Amino acid sequence: MVIQRIFSGIQPSGVAHLGNYLGAIRQWVSLQDKCESIVYSVVDLHSLSVPQAPLLLKRNIRSMTVCLLACGVDPDKSIIFQQSQVPQHAQLMWLLSCRTPSGWLSRMTQWKAKGATSDRDVVSLGLFAYPVLMAADVLLYKATHVPVGEDQLQHLELTRDIARSFNSTYGATFPEPKPLLSNHKRVMSLRNPLQKMSKSDNQEMSRITLSDTPDEIRKKFRRAVTDSIGNITFDPAERPGVSNLVTIYSAVTEISTEEVCLQFEGKQSVDLKEELAEILVDKLGPIRERIEQLESDEGYVDDVLTRGAERARAIAEDNISTITRLVGLS
Ligand code: TRP
């Protein structure tokens, strides 16, 4: 497989949690050895599709950047930048919006679940148009491959539809980007294993964050919701709590869920919780230390973002000038 250019984005939700790490960030780090041209963005414009408190948003942009660096996203190997510092994202989004039938957007599963059912006098046009901004992100860099979670596959499909339609009108301009699916399942909430682990859950106990102390990690696993059966099996439909712990164990140790169950044969969920907590204490310890170092070095993080935005802008300016010419603006 020839990967010419990778683009991916993550929303600045604050300090990353285990779901972000296992579902996206870890894959971002390992892809750095497989591709020469990688662009990773903290997509702050996407966050604005729902209301944000300004000071908190500003802090969260920084925290997410720090987490990416602490996990091993390397500014010498990848371009890492803040989306709003490259205005061509919003510019290309408008150009693509004007060619995207609104029916395509009405059919997006995420919109149907989150937006279409909300009060139309409250929910923003930005939330509806969000997938077009995502398409603009990817196409602005002519990315060929996009690491995404399963829940973003449909948006990437839309990106390909938009690229194809543009190409058929104006001639071959954009590659049709392919997904790079991370092979790990979604990490669910430790309090309600039927829901995804998420920053928006107001129960702190529902998620492990990358800056949790060893004691916090142990406590959160001890309190993780399981069931009264006790033994260890992998059956997400019938036993979501235990299965989520097996999924996390499998993802962190990179052994299959079957092997995890074999390894815990004859043992109880409390054993799995304890062992999992210790593995994560070891794994996340060095990341937490790097987060602390980076947080005390504001100048460094600023420099990374400034340099990243300059490099991203150089590509974006070049591509947008071709695009504006093609559509007749210049
Ligand atoms: N929509 C993605 C999410 O919520 C984030 C994102 C924005 C993204 N732009 C992107 C992912 C471009 C991949 C490529 O997870």
Short description:
The chain is mainly alpha-helical.
Description:
The protein has 330 residues and is mainly alpha-helical. It folds into 2 domains: 211 residues, Rossmann fold (3-Layer(aba) Sandwich); 90 residues, Tyrosyl-Transfer RNA Synthetase (Orthogonal Bundle). It is 54% helix and 7% strand. It has a 3-stranded parallel β-sheet with strand order 1-2-3. The protein has a two-stranded parallel sheet with strand order 4-5. Helix 8 links the parallel strand 4 and strand 5. Helix 4 packs parallel to helix 13 and helix 10 crosses helix 12. It is globular, with a radius of gyration of 21 Å. The mean pLDDT is 96. The structure holds tryptophan. The site of tryptophan has 12 residues, from strand 1, helix 7 and strand 4.
Please give the structural blueprint.
Layout: E1 6-10, H1 18-31, E2 38-42, H2 44-47, H3 54-71, E3 79-82, H4 88-97, H5 102-106, H6 109-114, H7 125-140, E4 145-148, H8 153-170, E5 178-181, H9 214-222, H10 240-253, H11 257-263, H12 269-295, H13 298-327
Parallel strand pairs: 1-2, 2-3, 4-5
The structure holds tryptophan (TRP).
Tryptophan is lined by residues 7-9, 11, 43, 46, 134, 137-138, 146, 148, 152.
